[in-house]
Amino acid sequence: MRRAILLLTLTTACSPAPVEWQQPAPSEANGALLIAPMEPTLPTVERLCRASLRIAKDPRGDWYAAWWSVRADSSANIVVAASPDAKRWSPAVRADTADVGRTGCRRPPPSIAADSGVVHVAYSMTAREGAGVFVTHSMDKVSMFHTPVAIVYGTFDGDATGRTAIAAHGNTVAVAYEDPNSKPARIGVALSTTMAHLFEWRGLVSPETGGAIDPAVAVSGDSVLAWWTRVTEGTAPPRMRLVGILKHKR
C-alpha cells in the first residue's frame, strides 16, 4: 500500500524561527529522556525489539510505550500501546508500517511524548521514499495514528539512521534529531504550534564546529530546551544545553 508523506518544505530562509535561542552551555542534566527503567509487562508481540522500548507518561496519568517490532524480512513497524499504570497494556497499535530498512533490531529507538491524551512518536527510518526523520501522532490516545510528517530527508550512509527526541505541551511540539545531512554530525530541532499537524520551522541548533549526537528536548511553559552530547577526543564528552523562548507564548 502506497502512503502519502507530508514533507516539511519550510526552511529558515523563508520562515523566521518562532523561538529565540540563547547560547549553548554545558549541562549536568541529561535531558528529558524517559527510558523504561525495567522490563514492563507488555502485550505479546512477535519479534519485539526490547532494547528499543521507550515510555512516556501523560500529565493526566496514562502511560504510553513505543518500540520497533521487526518483521521476518528484518524491516520493522513502529508499535504503540497504552496503559493506566505501566503494567496493564492495551493491544499494540501499528503507528507506522512504511519502514523498508533491513537492519532488524539494529536501529535507533523511537521517541515518544504524550499530553492530554495526544500521543506523539518520532523516529528515523528508511521509507520507500528515502531515509529520514518522521513524526506521527494520535489525537485520542492510541486509537488511530495520523499520516506521518517527514521532518527531514537525508543522505544516510546506507541504512544507518539517527536518534530522535520529542516533547509536547498543548499545541506546541518539539522534535530534536541527529541531522542526516551534516558532517560532522549536528543536532536539528523542528517546531510545531499546531499539535504536530504541521511543523512550521526546523533548523540546526548545535554549533558548526565539532560533532553532536544523542539529542533530548523538552517544552516547558514558554521555553524549549534541547540537549546533546559533543563529540570530542581524549576527554569525557560534555553534555550541552540550549534554551529558547517561544515567541508566540509572549
Write the layout of secondary structure elements.
Layout lengths: L5 E2 L11 E3 L3 E2 L27 E4 L5 E8 L5 E8 L9 E4 L14 E5 L2 E10 L2 E9 L10 E5 L10 E6 L2 E7 L8 E6 L8 E4 L6 E10 L2 E9 L7 E8 L4
Parallel strand pairs: 1-11
Antiparallel strand pairs: 2-18, 3-18, 4-5, 5-6, 6-7, 8-9, 9-10, 10-11, 12-13, 13-14, 14-15, 16-17, 17-18
Structure report:
- With 250 residues, the chain is mostly beta strands.
- The chain has one domain: Neuraminidase (6 Propeller), CATH 2.120.10.10.
- The chain is built from no helices and 18 strands.
Strand order of the largest sheet: 1-11-10-9-8
Question: Count of DSSP E strands?
Answer: 18
- The structure class reads mainly beta
What is the quaternary state of this protein?
A: single chain
What profile does the largest beta sheet have?
5 strands, mixed
Q: Could you give the order of the helices and strands?
A: EEEEEEEEEEEEEEEEEE
Number of helices: 0
- Total of domains: 1
Radius of gyration: 17 Å
Kindly identify the CATH topology. Neuraminidase
The pLDDT mean sits at: 85
The 3D shape can be described as globular
Terminal-residue CA separation: 44 Å
Q: What is the CATH architecture descriptor?
A: 6 Propeller
Poorly predicted parts:
1-14
CATH class membership: Mainly Beta
